[in-house]
Amino acid sequence: MPATDYLPRHLAHAFSRLGKAGEGIKGIIALSGNPEYVSYWDDFLGTRGGTWPASTPYAATVGTGTEVIGITQARNGTMTLTTGATDGNTAGQGFGLNWSGDDGFYFIARVMVDRIMACKFEVGMSDAVNDDGAVLDKSATPPTFTATDCGLFCYDTTDNTLLTFMSNGGTTDGDADAVTSLGPFTVTLASPGVFTKTDHGLSAQEPVVFATTGALPTGLTAGTIYYVIAAGLTANNFRVSATAPSVSGGDGAAVNTSVSQSGIHTMTKATPVRANEYMLVEVVGRGPTDTTGDTVLGFLNGQLVGSGNITGATALTPWFYCETLASADLPPTTMRLTVDYWGCIGPRTPGWGSAV
User: Does CATH number 2.60.120.200 belong to domain 7-176+274-347?
Assistant: First the structure.
């Protein structure tokens, strides 16, 4: 079915997020051709729309192996990026328009992936339209990038199972995981440790992170990602494993807790990435802020995840990318990223609408 969160309604909030109060309606006006703004969107329901010529093709396709980019412009139309079936195969798609952080922009996309194990994907704004991926190493401290400038969401199971908003190009890079605070919990000293949190709402295989004002029991480390397991899972209780769930083995071994503990323990859970379930990604460039770079913010399903800097003068374009990764648990197979719609809008300046 067509998306219920169809693009124009969200564009009504675009410029309020840029900090320009009262200008939200201009997002809608831009869709009607207001010359003050440049907008472009594709909902894959028919001819592409916006102030950019409808006949313009997608300008950049990158990938290894036998990647397939498919655009179905019909009722329930989508764009799909499918990798080859060999480990390390990729598929990437950029649209060659020039949006600038110096002037401010708003990007939105509704996307889903068909797998969440042994894979990587990126969605957002990047200048790396000719590279295989904007993020080079998500697990590095700090992360490293192929892109000179970008503001995007990245998921990479060689790092963890968290979706992360990342930026590169300014003084302060963005590197914020999409998590939700669940508040305090208690845990027994037992084998396995049993965690108690009334109506915790957790599901098996969801990643959680613990913190404390004192000391966690032996067996737990603050800031480390653990995974809820199915064994012992009730409305108010759960157990965790330090090992990510696998295709062949399912849940990892439960963590044992011992010795002693003190203080108030709290936990957060990751905003889950689920196979074949749409996510709404928004990236907002706020325009020039200072000499250290322009601020860019990332929203997932309407919630602010994080912010960072980009170099505002760089030409950025909407960017979609996926990669299948090596895994002992998952035999070589394809990965598919599906785009239900995407759109981008910003003030008109000289050079906008030119290929990057």
Answer: yes
